[in-house]
Amino acid sequence: MSGYRAIYTSRPFGFDAKTLNSILGHALRVIPGRGITGALICREDMYLQLLEGPQDAVRQALERIRRDPGDWSRN
Q1: What's the CA gap between 19 and 7, in Å, rounded?
Q2: DSSP, res 35
Q3: Separation between Cα atoms, residue 30 and residue 22, nearest integer Å
Q4: Residue 24 CB neighbours (<10 A)
Q5: pLDDT digits (tens, 9 = 90+) for 18-75
Q6: How far is it, in rounded angstroms, from Cα 12 to Cα 74?
Q7: DSSP code of residue 53
């Protein structure tokens, strides 16, 4: 897929199955219909996420992530 790509890292606020399922569930509710695909790599000490799709849609997704009230510590 060609398009705009963004990669970012963050420190996890949780690394259990419930937290990871919550992240996935949220993504599946927010992303459909926007043409965004991506990948999330999870480790105990780091999340790395790739988002790809139309530039406006990816930038809007990144802005939502930045405003997330979760206890994220951006790198």
Answers
A1: 21
A2: T
A3: 12
A4: 11
A5: 888 888 888 888 777 888 988 989 888 888 999 999 999 999 989 988 887 654 444 4
A6: 10
A7: E
Pull the structure tokens for residue 41. 């790599």
Domains and CATH numbers, the chain: 4-68 (3.30.70.100)
Give how far the C-alpha of residue 62 lies from the chain's centroid of Cα atoms, to the nearest Å: 8
- Rounded Cα gap, residues 34 and 68, in angstroms: 19
Q: Which residues does 61 contact at the CB level (< 8 Å), separation at least 6?
A: 30, 31, 34, 36, 51
Residue 65: C-alpha distances to residues 1, 2, 4, 23 (Å): 22, 22, 17, 11
